[in-house]
Amino acid sequence: MPTLPRHFFATLTAIFVVQSSRAVETASPLTLFYTNATVKWTEALPIGNGRLGAMIFGGVEREHLQLNEGTLWAGGPYDPSNTNALAALPAARALIFDGKYDDAAKLIGDKMMAVPLQQMPYETLGDLWLGFPTNAVIENYRRDLDLGTAVATVSYTANGVHFKREIFASAVDQVIVIHLTADRPGQISFSAGMTTPQKADVVSKLEDRILPAGATGAATLVMSGTNGEARGIEGALKFKARLKVLAHGGGVLTKATKLLTISEGGYAAGVLPYKWSSSISVANADSATLFIAAATSYKNYHDVSGNPEAITKNQIAEAEERWAISSLAKHSDLMLADHIAAHQKLFRRVALDLGATDSMNLPTDVRIAHFADGNDPQLATLYFQFARYLLICCSRPGGQPATLQGLWNDSMTPPWDSKYTININTEMNYWPAEPCNLSECVEPLTQMVLEMAETGARTAKVHYGARGWVAHHNTDLWRATGPIDGPYSGMWPLGGAWLCQNLWEHYLFTDDKNYLRKIYPAMKGAAQFFLDTLVEEPTHHWLVTCPSLSPENGNPAAKNTSITAGPTMDLEILRDLFANCIRASEILGTDKKFAAQLGLARSRLAPLQIGSSGQLQEWLRDLDLQSHDLHHRHVSHLYGLFPSAQIDVNTTPELAAAAKKSLEIRGDQATGWATAWRINLWARLHDGDHAFSILEFLLSPARTFPDMFDAHPPFQIDGNFGGASGIAEMLLQSQNDEIQILPALPKTWPTGSVKGLRARGGFEVDIAWKDGRLTAATIHSLNGNPIRLRYGQTTKFMQTKKSATIQWDGRG
Ligand code: FUC
């Protein structure tokens, strides 16, 4: 942050003109671009700084930024425990072991669900609208998003004047910045207003103090509001959004009047659902800069005493100082330069080249429609890098983890509340984080799990009379951990245990013992819960979970419920959790006795079983082929193959063959995330061509919106992240102490290279290949661990030194 006092700049006159030439290069191949503006949200382009997000529509006469702030959810701190649950637990178990699954489901639905039955939704902050003079002849329209700079640009020529809007969400300055420029002076005229469906007022004010250096006018719009109640939980948050407009040349004025005639023009709904209250107008400026700051009073899941007024005021004041410094120094643009540097620090770590064709000159939506034609390998690169871009934009240290929609949601009642579904979706969001070299982006997830270990301890005690902690299939901003929605999807106590696996992966990739020390109590608590709640099933006396379910898939032995005991996925997750805890206790030199208990319990867990059709069984009994839905989207029992590595083509070939059979039965096409999961699974089976054929479906209009957001449908970001993870798995795998180079390279990418992928054990790997053969692998050893390399059937064991680089050509 600048150290010079604000008055220093304020006393200088406005002879300093902000340069319109900025160091932004938007012609990079890693650019999404379109030749038309849009009014559809899934065609708008996302920016974000991990906390503030915007979707940019790019209208010529009416620019629209739909805004989000990561902590603006409904409700307030709450405890969803149901004090009737524990008493019903023995009867529910007895019914399940008696085969009376539907009766068990009824009892669970009546007595054991969380109160309230649903959690709190993530909500939109509102919208910024900019109205520009109409009646011009528009030429050369383009809107784009450069993934390499994280800057969105809208440009066009109107009556011979070239206009440009550059928009970015700065993680450094914690504001969204909009630069409006033209290639002739005096051309920037517009009005700005904000609307919101939240309970809020918007007021405008002209600056009553001396203007910052370089500005000829300044004005502010302030939106002040409170969040809403949901499902009986009162809203407890205050929030502010602040728009600052700085003009150069021309003037700024506020008007407490209606700004635009919103009913005219082609908005989807015809008329906007909200009312204006205040607005700002700028007339005939040479250029203008807008800052948007927003914050809520959320500090953490039990503390809502933050001061959004002070936070946003400071953010705007600091942004203004930085802007003035640029202006004074005739610097190109400090904020932009810092923003790009912060983004590139993460983004540039991985470079992927799968080949390039002329298709790259086509608009992105056209390319998506034609990906299956097979002539556009660079679109897969763009899709891969878009996911990395999205993760950087929606999951930065200090913020909230990526929701079902990342950071971007235009609704008060979004699909599945845009929260955290932890029976696959949230875990999938973080699959690319480690292999794709964005390890820092896991921090918000780590923080959330540590907090869930606190709230989940109460759920464990009240619902199960158990030690440790538990979370079911969803959580929200308030870290609610009870079983929600209904028994069919909600009565699944493995959500926390699975999330611990994501955290363990962070340790495996980074080898960071301090991190392990930090997460170990949460891992231990998750395991402790199951030591207390696993029960013996009557047939084989194996230890199983009960009640539980195989996520969202009906129990074939029941009429209309998923409720069962010991679904395969649960036992796979617990096999990992217990093994990880045992390993962690050894590394940290603690909890010997507890580790021994875990070892014993682990050996008694129901084993993986191969069914009569050669498939990996999803349930304790061989019921798969009697499934109510053979092509069900969830492939939960294949967790053991991916993301876990209990099933492996090299070490457990029979189980791998069974997993393959199950995958074939399920089929290739499903919802967005479920399609993406299948890519990862086929990559783990070392069938790159099959994985690629599924990628073709994922990257088609059926599963990818024009702005490249994944289509469940509706929009859900997990498919983007799962898809990028799948591409990474095709090129590099590192499970079971082995670095596998090009384990699932499809024929369609005969020649290419990737730089900067990460492997478990602390390695960074660059790979180049030609005509389908490895030409060079370069392994940078970050921690000096030994490694075994594999290319096809060739393996090679190597000792490494910290910071050493190893070259390998794939020969033994
Ligand atoms: C799980 C999935 C659905 C959807 C929802 C958010 O329940 O089964 O397909 O993705 O999460």
The percent of residues in helical segments reads: 25-40%
Radius of gyration: 27 Å
Task: Tell how many strands the DSSP assignment holds.
Answer: 29
Distinct bound molecules: alpha-L-fucopyranose
Strand order of the largest sheet: 1-6-7-8-9-16-13-12-11
Which class of secondary structure composition applies to the elements? alpha+beta
Distance between the termini: 53 Å
How many H/I helical runs?
A: 18
**Overall morphology:** globular
Strand content: 15-25%
What labels would you give this structure?
812 residues, alpha+beta, seven-stranded antiparallel sheet, 18 helices, 29 strands, 30% helix, 21% strand, binds alpha-L-fucopyranose
Describe the structure concisely.
This protein is of the alpha+beta class. It is 30% helix and 21% strand.
Describe the 3D structure.
With 812 residues, the chain is an alpha+beta fold. It is 30% helix and 21% strand. It contains 18 helices and 29 strands. The protein has a 9-stranded antiparallel beta sheet. The protein has a 7-stranded antiparallel beta sheet with strand order 2-3-4-5-10-15-14. The protein has a 5-stranded antiparallel beta sheet with strand order 17-24-25-26-29. Helix 9 (443-464) runs parallel beside helix 12, helix 16 (672-684) packs antiparallel against helix 17 (688-698) and helix 17 packs antiparallel against helix 18. The longest helix is centred in the middle third of the chain and has 22 residues, at 308-329. It binds alpha-L-fucopyranose. Alpha-L-fucopyranose binds at residues 404, 416, 421, 425, 489, 552, 633, 671, 673, 712, 716.
